[in-house]
Amino acid sequence: MNAVTAAALLEVQGLMVSFPVRHAGRTVRLRALHDISLRLDAAETLGIVGESGSGKSTLARTLLRLTEPEQGQVRLRGIDLLQLRGSQLQRARARLQMIFQDGVAALDPRQRIGATLDEPLRMLKPGLSAAARLERVLDMLSRVGLEPPHLQRYPHEFSGGQAQRIGIARALIVEPELVVCDEPLASLDVSIRAQITALLLELKRDLGLSLIFIAHDLPAVQLLSDRVLVLYLGHIMETAARDALFHRPRHPYTRALLQSVPVPDPKLARLRRAPPLAGDIPSPLSPPSGCVFRTRCPHAIQRCALEVPPLRPVGGSEVACHRAEEI
Question: Does the model's pTM come out above 0.90?
């Protein structure tokens, strides 16, 4: 997959990540990401989906230099973030921000919310006066649906949904070029999840945000994303424009994920042509040979066990499946 273009905001090429783990009494390497390449244009949202253990959060942390890869490139506006050190990396932090899964846990319990929102401005925008910082804090607080009195409260005084709004405000307050959302809906109940999704969609439209949106909530991914990337055991299975992926998925794994989304109408549920995804994801310590999805794939043939399928164009998608045209 050729992900490098001059116009891209973010370019990732050949990213490989592994971790040392103890297994059967010895230290082995657990491969978390395999040759990941992707691109993101300005004001675009890339949705990333896949089951737990697929490598989604590892990818998010690697893009922000919270996890170091073995090899690859991560370029923001042409600058390889993996080569930055010291003050250069510190300056890059202002251009990249993250919204975490657990809004409450991501906040310092000893700080009032006013200090929490002011801190990134003091660290990353040292040229701003105190009055300018307060003006920006109040503006961002209003954008996420909170009010000035909330600045005097501590994190434990907020609900999960309110805490996630504060996390969003903290990520956006330094006006980053890219925001990575790592499962920002996972710890919320259904109604609050819908509110946070609507807030992100509004902010995306109003501020022209560039987002990487990682989630299990496929309806939210469909609503927010312009393109979608599907991960399985650290491999890209499929990537396509949103409508193409949701209306005509090419990879059996993508189809199974979409079939797993609950349908409230029993009649519509019975009309589904394929069963939802069955079985557990294999251990990354002993992944299947060939196609890593073949042990759960109803279309697997002998070739699938012998050859790793390359990511290749099929229709309007890029798919890592030997039989994509047939099925």
Answer: yes
